[in-house]
Amino acid sequence: MGILYAVAVPLGNLKDITLRAIDVLKSVDCVACEDTRNTRILLDKYDISTKLLDCHKFNEKERSSKISEILGENGSVALVSDAGTPAICDPGAVVENELLKMGHKIVPIPGASALTAFLSAVPRDNEFFSFIGFMPRTKQKREEIFEKFKNINCIFYESPNRLKDLLADISGYFGNSKKIAIGRELTKVFEEIKIGTVSEIADYYENNILKGEIVGMIFEEEENDFDETQIKNDIKTLKKQGFSAKDISKILSSLKNQPKNKIYELAAKD
After folding, report:
1. Distance (Å, rounded) from C-alpha 53 to C-alpha 34?
2. Which CATH architecture has domain 3-112?
């Protein structure tokens, strides 16, 4: 039986490819790729003439049969995505799952990954993190993620078209002072990694053009991020002055840079 190689390719800078990856791409019978046009640019750069087989999210299951035929004849196939490592927020997982069911062997050829490239440039207090892939599109689903992973560094991917809305949701849930990091256009000409409060990051991108895929991190909550006892005392004081729970959440969120929804929950209970 042949072998399916899961080959990591550059994120943007074509020099970010391993010697082993080049050898594999030259030696296999074909390269199953997300977009033949993008992959051809990479192969031409390294004088690789291996034939290409389109394999994207709309035809993965169908292509699994074709790839299985090649492997069954003792051939070999390289599976790549447009950028980074296949099957990580990119096509590939369906193909790999189908081929494993058929008894084929999968060999990883490690290399570039937006996730690890980003983390290598963002200092953290510990090595624990969660990776959720692309952020959900709705505010409700995002807030479910915020709540579930608030006590661990939360890594995510996002589209530039949705980043400003996401930053607003992070600010509304955690407060303006929440620490985050945003990486954009990694390994490319306009690469940048910004670390700061969600308010600072939002202000920066309000005046700067947003292009390219984004990877980000919401830093884990610190023990003293939310002083519930003090907040409850402030709520009692404001209630005595006739303020509603909704008004109290707005006032204290603004004054103390704390999440509006958490303050509202406390105010609504009493």
Report:
1. 9
2. 3-Layer(aba) Sandwich (3.40)
> Could you tell me which CATH number the domain at 115-218 has?
3.30.950.10
Residue 125: exposure state from Cβ atoms within 10 A (0-12, 13-18, ≥19):
exposed
In whole angstroms, what is the distance from residue 171 CA to residue 203 CA? 12
Largest CA distance in the chain: 80
How far is C-alpha 225 from the chain's CA centre?
A: 25
Q: Do domains 3-112 and 115-218 have the same CATH topology?
A: no
Angle between the N-to-C axes of helices 139-148 and 163-174, in degrees from 0 to 180, rounded to the nearest 10: 50
User: Which residues have a Cβ under 8 Å from the Cβ of 25 and sit 6 or more positions away?
Assistant: 7, 31, 43, 46, 48, 50, 78, 80
Q: Which of 10, 5, 96 is nearest to 46 (CA)?
A: 10
How far is 126 from 145, CA to CA, in rounded Å? 20
Residue with token string 């390719």 = 9
Residue-wise pLDDT for 133-155, tens only, equals: 999 999 999 999 999 999 999 99
Domain boundaries, the chain: 3-112, 115-218, 228-269
**Whole-prediction pTM value?**
0.80
Measured CA to CA, the distance from residue 155 to residue 206 in angstroms comes to: 22
